[in-house]
Structure formats: structure tokens, C-alpha cells
Task: inverse folding
């Protein structure tokens, strides 16, 4: 491996462009190396491998505005490989988000805005809290489903006001985790054409090369899900990356996966393609040697060439222009469809309609009905006032009574319906629900038997950390389920859920609800924060 040649003398415009591209890419690599080295912990290798991909994506494809990270018309980007968060932090700083070089220098420090795994709501531009591998993949599926749902409901001929893509970056570990299988299987079934995944195929995990544990044909797996698959043989080939992303974006009837063969810790003389670069600093001497091998102009830590920063910061003007164009279209849409525009704005702001809970059913202590039946009645009463409420169950809708009457079934081409059939995918359901909530404009509800909530622990925990308005309906928690045998009974689940519920309350999560204990508690339970 040799570093890219540096232009000398009277270079041609093409040569100058190539040199500037490499300077911008290596800026990401060196910031990642320096931040991890200063923190004395972290994952430098993947940011170094994916720096070219990040450069092409953020410079040529992703629609965003650093001055307004919450602009609704933006594309969504989810770093499911949360351990590679220095990749995202570097790009956010370089493109001009409200993240400074001093924040980069505080990587992994107590109270910093650059924690060891990126957190939504803490760092501007971070769309989802990731870390537990596979969760971000499911979140991205949820975001893409929310986009398709809202586009179906609110877009009108000549007014595509909801029209954006969702990207995610996944590692080898993400592909191994079962939740990615569950979520991507459903995404393919629903033909979510604006979902674009990028698989960092660096073939390294903490314990060694992936051939120790992983021999899947990932491309064929995703093709069997119904995804379009692109392959990039060299993660440093900017033209190939550009072409693959463009091809993925042209797909309108199915999600896409771009498989990129990369080299972890690219440029490091002794750590490239080794597990040592996965979860530990390169070491001061190796950082020095890597910078020299890359032809980096300075050995000073956190050095950012002015030319590189200026080029990256062009994203500010581009983002402002993209948002201004979208807002102009939105003004035209509002003039043509004022009621639709007002409803969309209400949903995105998270405002509940007036008197949404005025007509909830009441139940007497003597009412002889299962509490899940009462819960279903209350849910439908709420749904009549809250059209943003959507969701379903993990193949147990008839048992949990989470069915929106006359709500239709979400399916490929019928994304505007309200009943989501998650299939027997509890873990995927939880991660997708989080993505729906993170996107905004919808309030997700998911249900299963209480015993199976154990499959959902990671996304439930992340929902609590992110304060997401996700509603969980867990039924069949009675010891009276004896005829189903011990595998279906959940005598210990309420005990294990109780400390989680207390944490939820202290964290202030809006709606981490469990099934009320009595029928007459059902209405009160729907109002509870």
C-alpha cells in the first residue's frame, strides 16, 4: 500500500482536485487518530477506513444543512457502527455543525459533547443513539418507513413535500446481530426504496479476522430480502463510491445495500487490517508513522489544513440553498393545501390535538373483561383523535388487541396505513419503533406478550435514554397462563421490568408504558407520561 501521490509544480485542475480530495479525506483520518490517542481509548480504525466514503457521501449525496440540523427536508444518516463515532464527529465539525475542534479534543471525556458512542440530543447532527450493534440498522428502517408513511398521507401531485432518503452505515458486527436480519427482512418486504445501507466490509472484529465466526454471503442474503445490492471493491475509489451511491439513490421500489471493501486503519504501517486498530489507540509512534505515510503536512495533533476546512465548509452554503429551496416548495404547498400543511406541522412539532383525551371510555370496577380488551378500546378511542398513532404487534395483534379499526394494513405501496405487521420480530420491532419516533410525525406503538419483551430490552433501553414517545403494550403477564407451560409464563418479568420503569421515570421518557393492571386503569394509563 502506498499513499496517494501529492501534486507538485504546476498541477492540472484535475490533479489539484484529486490532491484536495485526499487532503480532505486524510483530515478525517488524522482527527480520528488524534482524538482516540488523546483520550487513550476508542476506535480509530473504522473512521480511517471509511473517511473516503464519508467524504463522497457528505459532499455529493447527503442533503443536510449544518446551520439547521433538524430541518425536516434533510436526508437522515444513522451510524449504526456507533463505535466509529469519531468518523461522524469529524465530519460534523468539518462541515460546520455546532461542534468545535475543542469538542473533538474532548472526545470520550466526562460531560463532553463527543461521547464514546454518539448520542441523539447531545451532539448536533446525530440522528440516533447507537452503540449496541444492529440497533441503528433497525432505526434506519423505522425512519424510512416513517418517511414513506408521511409521504403517502401528505404529498399531493406537484407537491412532494416529504421526500428524503435514509442512509445507515453498518459494520461486520451489525451484520452479525440478529436485529439487523429482522429489520432488513421487513424493509425488503415493504419495499422501502429510499433506504440506503452501507456495509463497511473491513473483515475485522475485536477478537480477530471475521473468518473466525462469519462466512455469510451478505450480498446474496440481502438480495434474498429483496434489496438492490451494489459492490465497491476498493473503499478508496471515490468514483466507484460515487457511482454506487448514485445507483442506490435511483432505486425507487426496493432498499439498497452498498457493500464497500475497506481496510481498517488504512495508512497505518503496522496496524492496518489488524484487530488492534479496532478498539484501542494506534500509539503515539504509530500515529506519527501513519501521518508520514499519508503525506500529512504536520505532526501537530489536531492539525486541520485551512484548504481542507474551507472545502468541507462549502457544505454550509449548499445546505442553506437546499433548505431555502425546500422551504419555498413548502410555502407553495401550504398555500395550496393549508389544512394538510397545518396537520403535518402539528405532528412534527409533537403537539397533541385539543381535547384528545376528552372521550376516553370509562370502566366500572365490576366490568368483567380482560384488561387487554379494555386497553384495545382505549387505544382506538385515542387513535380517533391522534392520527399520528401507528403500530401493531409481533404477530400477536389479535391477542394484544393492538389493532387500529379501519386503519388498514401497512404493506408495500400502502405505507399510509396504520397497522404495522412486524411479524415474529420482537427485537426488530423495538428498533424500528425507535426509528419511527426519531423521525418524527408519528407516534409508534408495539405489542407482544410480556415474556417476549425480553427480546426487546436493547431498543427499550435506548428509547428511555433518548426520551422517545414509544408506547409498549405487554400483555399475558398473569400466572394464570399455566396451560401454556413455563416457557410462556412471566412470573419474573414484572420484577425485572420494575427497576427499568423507575429508571424511565427518572430519565423523563415520555411514554414507556406497560399494560395497566386493571380495566379502569386503561384510560388513565394512556394519559400517563
Result:
Amino acid at each position: 500500500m502506498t499513499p496517494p501521490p501529492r501534486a507538485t509544480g504546476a498541477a492540472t485542475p484535475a490533479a489539484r482536485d484529486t490532491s484536495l480530495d485526499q487532503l480532505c479525506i486524510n483530515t478525517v483520518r488524522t482527527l480520528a487518530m488524534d482524538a482516540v490517542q488523546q483520550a487513550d481509548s476508542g476506535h480509530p480504525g473504522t473512521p480511517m477506513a471509511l473517511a473516503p466514503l464519508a467524504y463522497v457521501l457528505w459532499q455529493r449525496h447527503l442533503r443536510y444543512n449544518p446551520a439547521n440540523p433538524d430541518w425536516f427536508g434533510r436526508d437522515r444518516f444513522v451510524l449504526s457502527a456507533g463505535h466509529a463515532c469519531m468518523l461522524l464527529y469529524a465530519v460534523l465539525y468539518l462541515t460546520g455543525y455546532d461542534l468545535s475542534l475543542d469538542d473533538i479534543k474532548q472526545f470520550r471525556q466526562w460531560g463532553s459533547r463527543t461521547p464514546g458512542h454518539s448520542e441523539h440530543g447531545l451532539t448536533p447532527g446525530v440522528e440516533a443513539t447507537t452503540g449496541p450493534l444492529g440497533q441503528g440498522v433497525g432505526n434506519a428502517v423505522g425512519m424510512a418507513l416513517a418517511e414513506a408513511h408521511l409521504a403517502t398521507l401528505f404529498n399531493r401531485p406537484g407537491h412532494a413535500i416529504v421526500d428524503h432518503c435514509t442512509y445507515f452505515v453498518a459494520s461486520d458486527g451489525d451484520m452479525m446481530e440478529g436485529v439487523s436480519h429482522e429489520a432488513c427482512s421487513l424493509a425488503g418486504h415493504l419495499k422501502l426504496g429510499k433506504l440506503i445501507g452501507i456495509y463497511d466490509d473491513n473483515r475485522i472484529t475485536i477478537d480477530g479476522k471475521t473468518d473466525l465466526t462469519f462466512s455469510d454471503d451478505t450480498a446474496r442474503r440481502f438480495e434474498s430480502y429483496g434489496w438492490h445490492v451494489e459492490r465497491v471493491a476498493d473503499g478508496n475509489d471515490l468514483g466507484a463510491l460515487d457511482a454506487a451511491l448514485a445507483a442506490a439513490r435511483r432505486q425507487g421500489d426496493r432498499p439498497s445495500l452498498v457493500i464497500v471493501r475497506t481496510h481498517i486503519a488504512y495508512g497505518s504501517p503496522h496496524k492496518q487490517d489488524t484487530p488492534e486498530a479496532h478498539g484501542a489507540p494506534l500509539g503515539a509512534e504509530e500515529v506519527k508513522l501513519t501521518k508520514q505515510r499519508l503525506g500529512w503536512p504536520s505532526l501537530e495533533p489536531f492539525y486541520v489544513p485551512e484548504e481542507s476546512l474551507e472545502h468541507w465548509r462549502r457544505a454550509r452554503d449548499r445546505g442553506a440553498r437546499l433548505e431555502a429551496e425546500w422551504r419555498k416548495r413548502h410555502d407553495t404547498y401550504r398555500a395550496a393545501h393549508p389544512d394538510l400543511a397545518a396537520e403535518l406541522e402539528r405532528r412534527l412539532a409533537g403537539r397533541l390535538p385539543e381535547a384528545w383525551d376528552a372521550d376516553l371510555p370509562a370502566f366500572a370496577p365490576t366490568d368483567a373483561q380482560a384488561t387487554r380488551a379494555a386497553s384495545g378500546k382505549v387505544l382506538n378511542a385515542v387513535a380517533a383523535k391522534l392520527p399520528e398513532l401507528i403500530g401493531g404487534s409481533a404477530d400477536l395483534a389479535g391477542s394484544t388487541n393492538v389493532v387500529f379499526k379501519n386503519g388498514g394494513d401497512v404493506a408495500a405501496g400502502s405505507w399510509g396505513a396504520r397497522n404495522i405487521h412486524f411479524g415474529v420480530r420482537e427485537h426488530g420491532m423495538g428498533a424500528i419503533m425507535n426509528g419511527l419516533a426519531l423521525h418524527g410525525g408519528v407516534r409508534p406503538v408495539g405489542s407482544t406478550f410480556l415474556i417476549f419483551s425480553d427480546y426487546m430490552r436493547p431498543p427499550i433501553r435506548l428509547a428511555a435514554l433518548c426520551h422517545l414517545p414509544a408506547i409498549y403494550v405487554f400483555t399475558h403477564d398473569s400466572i394464570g397462563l399455566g396451560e401454556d407451560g413455563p416457557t410462556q409464563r412471566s412470573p419474573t418479568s414484572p420484577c425485572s421490568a420494575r427497576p427499568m420503569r423507575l429508571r424511565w421515570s427518572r430519565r423523563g421518557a415520555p411514554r414507556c408504558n406497560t399494560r395497566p393492571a386493571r380495566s379502569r386503569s386503561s384510560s388513565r394509563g394512556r394519559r400517563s407520561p
Summary: The chain has two domains: 14-319, 371-527. The domain at 371-527 is CATH 3.40.50.970 (Rossmann fold).
